Amino acid sequence: xxxxxxxxxxxxxxxxxxxxxxxxxxxxxxxxxxxxxxxxxxxxxxxxxxxxxxxxxxxxxxxxxxxxxxxxxxxxxxxxxxxxxxxxxxxxxxxxxxxxxxxxxxxxxxxxxxxxxxxxxxxxxxxxxxxxxxxxxxxxxxxxxxxxxxxxxxxxxxxxxxxxxxxxxxxxxxxxxxxxxxxxxxxxxxxxxxxxxxxxxxxxxxxxxxxxxxxxxxxxxxxxxxxxxxxxxxxxxxxxxxxxxxxxxxxxxxxxxxxxxxxxxxxxxxxxxxxxxxxxxxxxxxxxxxxxxxxxxxxxxxxxxxxxxxxxxxxxxxxxxxxxxxxxxxxxxxxxxxxxxxxxxxxxxxxxxxxxxxxxxxxxxxxxxxxxxxxxxxxxxxxxxxxxxxxxxxxxxxxxxxxxxx
Length: 406
Description:
By secondary structure, the protein is mainly alpha-helical. The chain has one domain. The chain contains 16 helices and no strands. α3 packs across α12 and α14 packs across α15. The two termini are 23 Å apart.
């Protein structure tokens, strides 16, 4: 079943650039968000809480800068809405959306990292429990503020939990797998991937009223399954999709601006995003979540057309952009590795580090190690997404062909 969506602009919305390829600024933003998550988790596991760190200005600033991880996940949601939601809208408006192709594209993208990440988590957590089971991390000390689970870690390593996580049911029907609490957001992403096309089909799908009613029923079933905790983040994701819908008229407006005005607007939007990140880490409230989503969307609008930096800034941007091809891998595997490292370095929560220059340097070095680990993991997983998609497409065509024969 296919569908068309009425035009909301004079020209059809163009598909956003593919992540990890041409759009350096947005890819760099994605890489930065992933690194912020890593740094936050490491600092939480290794350092004393901010309340016990002292009142020095440098310490307070460093705790704020290393505490932006939870807020940075919202940046991922907006960018995902732009890229994935934009591709759906483009396919709908060109009357070429197909559930089979969409499913293989999304599942290959998610599974090629998620399934090995769950397997790696099982290995690392099993080793951690066997060798370091006496440490605060593997005992589930609540001092870590649920960066790692605070209860029954062994119970989170069972086959049912693994199956639930690769089926994107973590936090919905099963807990996140082992120490890998970061996997919560993948369930939210998968829900948004299903909800958005279903909503479009229910609104303006082919097949007449019965087909639209069926899609509406399926939409309600998915919404009921995932529940309010997931749905409350849907508007954040949709903000990115809205930018993709109007990408061409936005690009036309941006091209009419002078370079100075555009650069100034981008600088102001970046500053606003930084302020919203700070506000959200200070108080993770609904108001601040919307503020952060809004400022991210504003910057996204101004970056619909990529920046044209050259020289040293351009080379730095190129490097950050290239790492975006590994950012999903980094996000999916860093936490069980960080948990094992922290259990070795600070066996008890009471032994966590006080803020000192040597400890901040150690945090930077360990963050670099995890970034490198994410890159290596991506080399054997994420970089082969197109191959897995081709395999799934082939299996689907083969299965469809067999069923079509008399």
